[in-house]
Write a structure and sequence with these properties.
Aminopeptidase, seven-stranded mixed β-sheet, single chain, alpha+beta, globular
Length: 171
């Protein structure tokens, strides 16, 4: 397995659309409800353009997860806040065929290193659905510690869902 992350590019939109279409049912229980347009090349071009615009503002660091030259997921540090907070939120997903093989763990580790190194942040937070034990383990393997429960935190699969909150600190 040769998995890493790299900055998303506008040219990734066709492959992202393909991966998302192939994994639509697999990802549906863990993601916000998405319209059909999201799974198209033009839809992904809009998503990528927005991520790159947010990157230009210093608000996000959007990456794709790549294994052997093939996109198998997406990961981003978002809601980057400077000043005394120096914090960001981490979100990610991997395709079904990349699931359970350490790819998400490696990608999260890389993003945390970028957060504390290149970006100079102090804190990274992440939330998981309460029953998403696999994602909780990915975070814990990367030094994240559970610090709370947020009732009705995000609208996932059409319903407001509780999330377990995690954070990791630079020190």
């Amino acid at each position: 397995m040769t998995a890493t992350t790299r900055m998303v590019t506008r040219g990734d939109a066709p492959e992202m659309a393909e991966v998302l279409r192939a994994n639509r049912d697999f990802l549906a229980p863990w993601e916000p409800a998405r319209g059909d347009g999201y799974f198209t090349e033009p839809g992904q071009r809009l998503v990528v353009d927005d991520m790159l615009r947010q990157w230009g503002l210093g608000a996000t660091l959007p990456h794709v997860i790549v294994e052997d030259g093939r996109i198998v997921g997406r990961i981003a540090l978002s809601n980057i806040v400077r000043g005394p907070f120096l914090s960001a939120s981490l979100g990610y997903w991997v395709a079904a065929d990349a699931n359970g093989r350490g790819i998400a763990t490696a990608a999260v580790g890389r993003m945390v290193r970028l957060a504390f190194g290149e970006l100079g942040l102090h804190r990274v937070e992440a939330g998981t659905l309460t029953h998403n034990i696999a994602s909780q383990r990915v975070l814990e393997r990367n030094g994240f510690r559970r610090y709370g429960l947020a009732p009705g935190y995000l609208r996932i699969a059409g319903e407001w869902r509780d999330h377990v909150l995690y954070q990791v600190l630079a020190d």
